[in-house]
Design a protein that fits this description.
Largest sheet: 5 strands, mixed
Order of helices and strands: EEEEEHHHEE
Distance between the termini: 12 Å
Number of domains: 1
Number of strands: 7
Structural class: alpha+beta
Oligomer: single chain
Length: 108
């Protein structure tokens, strides 16, 4: 398995830090709350991407445009887990909408 899935026990409005550099990659104190660091591969929700590196996108089965165009048929976690990227960690947290999650990928 190239990835590790870690389910975070945080509230939807909690900040989330990079496990490597401790930068807040989700920082609700900032107007632009998405603050990816050099270790962040993607920030996604079940309804689409908020951020993704080209490096990670090229390892996915489908590109982001295709996923967004067919978002009613996409299971985001399955798409992220199927990527051929070597060794990454997926943090999963509650999005605050019942049944929806946020996924943050970091280099391992």
């Amino acid at each position: 398995m190239a990835y590790q899935l870690i389910q975070l026990a945080v509230q939807p409005t909690d900040n989330i830090a990079c496990p490597h550099c401790q930068q807040q990659v989700i920082d609700w104190a900032e107007e632009q709350y998405i603050q990816p660091c050099e270790h962040t591969l993607f920030i996604a929700m079940d309804i689409g991407f908020e951020y993704i590196t080209d490096e990670f996108e090229t390892t996915m089965r489908r590109n982001v445009d295709d996923l967004h165009a067919n978002d009613d048929q996409v299971i985001m976690l399955d798409e992220l887990k199927a990527a051929a990227f070597d060794h990454y960690v997926i943090y999963q947290s509650d999005l605050g909408i019942e049944g929806y999650s946020r996924y943050i990928g970091f280099t391992a």
